[in-house]
């Protein structure tokens, strides 16, 4: 199987990730932070280690500002619902995933106002549109760092500046970039940075999270046991406990540490370099195939290693099926949980076939995909 | 290390659980239900298999009524916040965990009324107190199945009948019993049964969930990508998608399947039988040690295999520390995230040393704990 579905989850993971999860489960997987015995303390230390690795990776001063959640969606729901109240206005873009759009639509029922700025056909945001969308009751800007459909990169530094000038909170969804692109919260004006562990960070599924800037106070999504201030029936205000109730996914968090260590060892630039090179080559080769429509910038400096395409008007699900069934190539067709992004780029009805590349993809695999696409493009539609 | 902290998380797990998690991560851990390719389909099948195993275990007719969450706390927050609105009244007991009490206290801020029925010194609920607590605006009863402090079992069948007669919803927290006690939702009148995967069900940490009765409609806690109805900006109403947004913990869910298969293979009665026997023996032996105060029923037919005790007025943390440090025995001191339960049984200031037993604990380990307790009880307090 040639795996080009890394925007959904990276696969495979580094060997050290499998081993870290296995070792955690076998050797010390008591409940972290709940008891004082040796195993519980060891589990707690490993959770803290991962928090510290993430803080270092994102340039956060304190590891307590890194919060673990179930996944990026859980983090986004906590971030979005935690900061707004009835009457507030939130601005976002048409390139967002349903993990941003659906919570916003839900909030509309509760009296929150939203503006979804339509990006251009390449998925690019016009910053003037952003500036003119700001109103008196605007409280939050939320954007992805890179679209999961076209890979288009948003100008997060510039958006952060606009947010700062207008005293707005800025939430960034880094699901498609954390671990592959440098994101430094001391350099970008970001209040909440949500991430997922199982994509670029190379950890197992079941762990996401967010960085929250010191002084930014959210309402928590959940209350419950934190292992701290047990005598109180109120959720503790201290971080990270306030936002982390119940037993965490300790094996997943231990695996994530191994993923981040792998990234540090190889180097984030080298990882992105490889992904950029193979994506660039893929884009160039595929651009030359008749009848193939490529969406998005078609420029690796403007996009993450994600390429959505169609073969004329053939159903994306059919092309994806052929790639899987006849060529053993895994891609993802359809709308990728981002319907407005597809409307923006003009594939709202057809969806698209998404190729998303990862560090473990090889040149040979890319060549095989190009050959497969050439062959499918020549076939008659059936 | 002798591990008696199974009420926090069972440890070790069956060998098959470690292997299932490892195999999942290595062999097929694509994103379940998101793409149509072989790996994604295989991941989806494994998630469905676990759902079906849980449905069978709990006597649910349809697996779609089993929902996966991060942990039991996440499930309880979804259940509690999903059913009540301003002005509603919820009844619970003083033996609950903070995963029930803290969300209720939070809801009080939003105009929800709560009644916490004080149980007796053994932690037992008086059903007459429950009946007299019901008011015109009562909407929900929520109780644990077994206390995480004393193990005391709640009369869930009788409570379910009272709920039914009064047209109330009944939510059961089975964190301490699922996998060890038979819970049949076709036999008990329960609307939502929350569970955790990493205790009696012997799965890894990072997976909890709930059963929701057909026709009981909750507001979801989160919205986001579900891999279904991607074209819609509204959360789908179909189950289980409505309550499951974002990438699930596929390795954890695969591990949970192995845990449940292990339980089916050994037999739930045999598992509980062993735990009851060793707990009963422990209770009997420890009762004979001077200066030891045992909380709760001290009767294995009335409690899960959890025993909280103190040595006179010595700090529970000190005793637990000695057990760990000098005897390599892991217990959990303090309030166990259940402050009202400790107030109820009279240990609100002191906390208690909790021994919680699991299927893998041996008679020899119990004997060693008894010897250790005898020795510590003889020492002078320092």
Protein architecture, described:
The structure is a homodimer of 382-residue chains. In chain A, 38% of the residues lie in helices and 14% in strands. Chain A is α/β, with parallel strands linked by helices and 382 residues long. Chain A folds into 2 domains: 2-10 and 267-378, Aspartate Aminotransferase, domain 1, CATH 3.90.1150.10; 15-265, 3-Layer(aba) Sandwich (Aspartate Aminotransferase, domain 2). Chain A has a 7-stranded mixed sheet, sandwiched between helices. In chain A, α6 links the parallel β5 and β6 (169-173). At the A-B interface, α1, α2, α3, α4 and α7 of A face α1, α2, α3, α4 and α7 of B.
Q: From the alpha-carbon coordinates, what is the Rg of chain A to the nearest angstrom?
A: 21 Å
Label the structural class of chain A: alpha/beta
CATH fold-type name of the largest domain in chain A: Aspartate Aminotransferase, domain 2
Number of strands of chain A: 12
Low-confidence stretches of chain A: none
Oligomer: homodimer
Largest sheet, strands/sense/barrel of chain A: 7 strands, mixed
**Globular, elongated, flat, extended or rod-shaped: what is the shape of chain A?**
globular
* Beta strand % of chain A: 5-15%
Number of helices of chain A: 11
SSE order of chain A in H/E notation?
EHHEHEHEHEHEEEHHEEHEHEH
Largest interface: A-B, 87 and 88 residues
């Amino acid at each position: 199987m040639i795996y080009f579905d890394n925007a959904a989850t990276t696969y495979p993971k580094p060997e050290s990730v499998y081993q870290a999860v296995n070792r955690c489960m076998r050797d010390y997987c008591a409940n972290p932070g709940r008891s004082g015995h040796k195993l519980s303390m060891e589990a707690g230390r490993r959770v803290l280690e991962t928090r510290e690795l993430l803080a270092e990776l994102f340039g956060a001063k304190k590891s307590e500002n890194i919060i673990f959640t179930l996944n990026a969606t859980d983090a986004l729901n906590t971030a979005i619902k935690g900061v707004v109240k009835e009457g507030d206005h939130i601005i976002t873009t048409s390139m967002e995933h349903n993990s941003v759009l659906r919570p916003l639509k839900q909030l509309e029922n509760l009296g929150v106002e939203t503006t979804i700025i339509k990006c251009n056909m390449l998925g690019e945001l016009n910053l003037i549109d952003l500036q003119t969308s700001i109103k008196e009751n605007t409280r939050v800007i939320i954007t992805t760092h890179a679209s999961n459909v076209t890979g288009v990169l948003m100008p997060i530094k510039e958006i952060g500046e606009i947010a700062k000038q207008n005293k707005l909170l800025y939430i960034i969804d880094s699901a498609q970039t954390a671990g592959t692109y440098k994101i430094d919260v001391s350099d970008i004006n970001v209040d909440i940075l949500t991430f997922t562990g199982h994509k670029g960070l190379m950890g197992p599924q079941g762990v996401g999270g967010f960085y929250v800037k010191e002084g930014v106070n959210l309402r928590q999504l959940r209350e419950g046991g934190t292992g701290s201030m047990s005598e109180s029936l109120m959720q503790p205000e201290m971080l990270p406990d306030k936002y982390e109730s119940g037993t965490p996914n300790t094996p997943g968090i231990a695996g994530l540490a191994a993923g981040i260590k792998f990234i540090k060892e190889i180097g984030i630039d080298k990882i992105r370099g490889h992904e950029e090179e193979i994506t660039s080559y893929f884009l160039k080769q595929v651009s030359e195939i008749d009848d193939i429509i490529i969406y998005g910038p078609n420029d690796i400096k403007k996009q993450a290693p994600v390429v959505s395409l169609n073969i004329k008007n053939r159903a994306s699900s059919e092309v994806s099926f052929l790639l899987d069934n006849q060529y053993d190539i895994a891609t993802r067709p359809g709308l990728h949980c981002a319907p407005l992004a597809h409307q923006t780029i003009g594939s709202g009805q057809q969806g698209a076939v998404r190729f998303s590349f990862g560090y473990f993809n090889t040149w040979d695999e890319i060549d095989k995909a190009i050959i497969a696409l050439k062959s499918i493009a020549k076939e008659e539609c059936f």
